[in-house]
Amino acid sequence: MFGDLFEEDYSSVSNYQYGKEKKLKTKALEPPAPREFTNLSGIRNQGGTCYLNSLLQTLHFTPEFREALFSLGPEELGSFEDKDKPDAKVRIIPLQLQRLFAQLLLLDQDAASTEDLTDSFGWTSNEEDFLDLTVAVKNVSGLEDALWTMYIEEEVFDCDNLYHCGTCDRLVKATKSAKLRKLPPFLTVSLLRFNFDFVKRERYKETSCYTFPVRINLKPFCEQSDSDDLEYVYDLFSVIIHKGGCYGGHYHVYIKDVDHLGNWQFQEEKSKPDVTLKDLQNEEEIDDDPLIILKAILLQEENNVIPVDQLGQKLLKKIGTSWNKKYRKQCGPLRKFLQLHSQIFLLSSDESTVSLLKNGSLQAESDFQRNDQHIFKTLTSESPGLNDRPSCSHWFDINDSKVQPIKEKDIERQFQGKESAYMLFYRKSQLQRPPEARANPRYGIPCHLLNEMDAANIELQTKRAEWDSTNSNLELRLHLGPHYHFFNGALHPVVSQAESVWDLTFDKRKTLGDLRQSIFQLLEFWEGDMVLSVAKFVPAGLHVYQMLDGDDLTLCELEIADGEDLFVWNGVEVGGIPIPTGSDCEPLLLHVLHLATSSEGGRCPRLVESPHVFPSNAEVGAVLTALAVPVGVLFISATDPAGEEDWVAIPEEDLKKTFREQGLRNQSSVLVQDSSDDNSSLLTQGKWFTGMNEISWLQVQNLCELESEEKQVKVSATVNTVVFDIRIKAIKELKLMKELAENSCLRPIDRNGKLLRPVPDSYTVKEAELKMGSSLGLCPGKAPTSSQLFLFFTVGSDVQPGTEMEIIVEETVSVRDCLKLMLEKSGLLGDTWHLRKMDWCYEAGEPLCEEDATLRELMICSGDTLLLIEGKLPPPGFLKVSVWWYQPGGPTGHWKSHPDQMHGTPSPGGVWRAASTQGAPGDLHGEVSLLYLGDLEISEDATVAELKSQAMTLSSSSERVVPSPAFLRAWTVEGRRPGRLLRVNRQPLKEYKLGRKTEICLEPLQKEENLGPQDVVLRTQMRLPGQRAYAPCVDLVWDTGRGWTTGSLRQRVAHFCSLPVEKIEIAKYFPEKFEWLPISSWNQHLTKRKKKKKQDNLQGAPYYLKDGDTIGIKNLLVEDDEDFGTAGDDLGRETQQQLALGKKSQEALRVQSGDLFSTAKMPGRPRAPEASLSIHVGSFR
């Protein structure tokens, strides 16, 4: 079987092997990747070794050859250990081939290396065990046609061409033919694709159609015998394919997995509606072969004649790309190409026109191809025993290191074209494999190789584990600008952290431009410029630092760290409010202490503490402005040489310094004393007076409901005083009962008079974070132990100070049990409640979804406030979806809204009629009607089609007759408007990242729709001639599979409107601006000239095209002006200008009246006004 395989030059022996004292050859840093889902290994291309790789894979997938190779032991081949011995005879090539096949079978890597095998080559072979039939391709329809010509047709010698008989020594009539005498178990067929044109004196590749069957019966081509017919039946098991021309190209191989060693599964079935595989194949063939498309154009012309210039224009119109861009590099100029194919095209004498020769008829060629297809499909039915072939064969496309599963019918694509079959490998169908070899890659491998591969796999796993710790993937947290609002000096989520932050895993070796494009594709709803900025959480909230710039730089070069927070926004404002960025203006959360104000407006001898946020680059004097103190003295906390805290006064001239220059940081404390107070600290002779001696006390109030002579007392203390001592001293000075020593606790009092969590007796003043001069309440009841939590809770999200209830629970209690305890204490019934944690801004945070988790696991701490919110959370893995019915409105639409339904949550059947915030009355583009159907719970793993089906079971939807879910289009609801399109019916909901509570609207359709992943839905409107108005909207589905280019969209719109592409103009409508932006190749060309790296992509600036956008269409045959606007647009822009002027006037009046300083007064509740959150939210949609 091996011929002269063992005759070689031993000087080329490789020193490399797996096993003892040998190391696996991998990259210096990164180990080879594991096998992909096919569980098969490819072979790395060393450079020009693709043909060798294809042959080696074919031999590897020939089980009989593989097992014969493995059957050779040390007696026949020797061993690597003896290679340096002078008298030893070591067969290096088969040993290396054994090792390569063992790696392909067992080593967990995506591709093996052939470097050691190629280093050991050195034999020549004149004899092959696989019979190689060389068959012609030129002027032959297929393999059977070639075999028929070679072995069936007889050459007749008669008339003037008689045969000279050597026996009788005279000319006689005779016939000459050839037959196959003996068939091998494996048959190799070489297709003569490469020929030489003696007229043009150049080589060329035959790309015509050449069919070959998957199963073939060779009996008609063999000598007659009594053998069983099945002895002549062969199955195709390998096809080596060449892609390219006669001067270069690439080889890969289609291989049938006889032993089912691989995982033959398709990861994702992507289908497009009304498009078949044959259509896609034909389309690819037309694009790749200029001969076919040029002949097709000429056949459509009268007399098959056309000017050469018009031929180029017709080509551009047909395929969307010019000749120079697609074919010039490979085929040369168009006129030269026509001259080179003079057997098909005829140029006029002045080369101005071209015609199609009669022998170049495309119809004859298509009939010829259809005949070949018929031969391929009917071969098996005409051959005996072919119906016994298994119905499902496992085929793989092995392209060097890449392995992909394919279907048997995909072989038909290699019949013709620049990528076509070059060698065919058949095996006798009677060759049976042993059952134990099926799906068993270890079958037949020698023990020493098994042990070697097992050791190599362990080594690979170790290296991969080491690499994974320092891999190249980054975990990024994307904070979406439209989901945030600017409040209290920092950014905070509008709804919850979970819905505002998206996690993204990204390769740090890719560029910033790649990251931006990935985020852009992820956020289908995004419109406008997209800016990425590094953000960080500070105690005040989220703050934006430097803006990322340089799309050509990798994330490594930009020093993006793992777990980095990135803020995605337009780079200017959030919710209509400009956002300060950079480390200079980082917000600082300061604890400001000042004397409380009594009900009569005077000062109380009680210090209160309140949190305030200031930019780092603001002046320290801004503290006085925030507290409405005209003149005062500020003290900051400092540590003296003894290690104790002092209050140090800030000189008046230093009040103009910034917080950062003054050394203030987050959580720093500032004491404010009005200059009118008698005990104000002053500066004398340049020395700083410290307030430590004056404020080295804590004030304790009697809140035990027991009468005493004193309401409150001052207890002297230091930062190291124990809280227990302070409590006992307060009880004595208040002259209360000694029993309180065992059943009382101290609780800090905040600036609003609210009692905070009790302070453990074992803490010192410093450990309890108590500020000197602050107030404590002496309350009945023991402080919680170290294993207990003191929690506040209230019902609903509208928290009023002082209305919270209190509870002490074990930190190991579960969320479910904690909820029950709080419901019992508040006297509430039912199981439709859940808990949320309140943040420092007194806003409801994320729900506590894991009901079985303990409070400690969820990092709930003493003093936290939990909110009892009505409404049961969906189970883990489920979504709560509010469903709306969406009917695109119009001037005569019957969808109306009622005044009492414009605000709040509508009941089933309620209607929202949302118009653009600046919309003109009755503007067609600005109106959206949503009818509330109800809520449903659905699994995250459910598909969009299942969501539609369940939505139609809601009681409010029973009035609407929908034949099937395919007659519905699903959108997310964002700001009471359709947002993202859920386009793929089979896609799970969790891949859309909808959040645990989301809103969906369903749009009824007139016909069934099944959108593909690259289909975009646009609302087209034809402009009415002579009027500044448009016809009603008509949906257009645009396949963006060939790119989001202007030319592709214009061709689709022109075809949709049955108009020439040069006779239309289109524009996108921006309803928030009441503007139309024309979409033309000229605009894109200007963009390219200004910035060369800008691609012709309508997803980017300035169009930001997405689903649901309105496209205006103008017929230039009847109207050629440049105006796309309507009277409603003019009115809308005028209204916007009036609103802007009115807003500026109000701001000016407010500044003059001093109204801006009214906000400095302390509100009754520590929450900033939220009216500003509604400003320009719509600008992000």
Automatic annotation (TrEMBL):
InterPro entries, A to Z: Papain-like_cys_pep_sf, Peptidase_C19, Peptidase_C19_UCH, UBL_USP40, USP, USP_CS
SUPFAM superfamilies xref list: Cysteine proteinases (SSF54001)
First-level EC class: hydrolase
Alphabetical UniProt keywords: Hydrolase, Protease, Thiol protease, Ubl conjugation pathway
GO biological process: protein deubiquitination; proteolysis
PANTHER family listed in its UniProt record: UBIQUITIN CARBOXYL-TERMINAL HYDROLASE (PTHR24006), UBIQUITIN CARBOXYL-TERMINAL HYDROLASE 40 (PTHR24006:SF842)
Family label: Belongs to the peptidase C19 family.
UniProt-recorded name of the protein: Ubiquitin carboxyl-terminal hydrolase 40
Organism: Ailuropoda melanoleuca
Classification of source organism: Eukaryota, Metazoa, Chordata, Craniata, Vertebrata
Gene: USP40
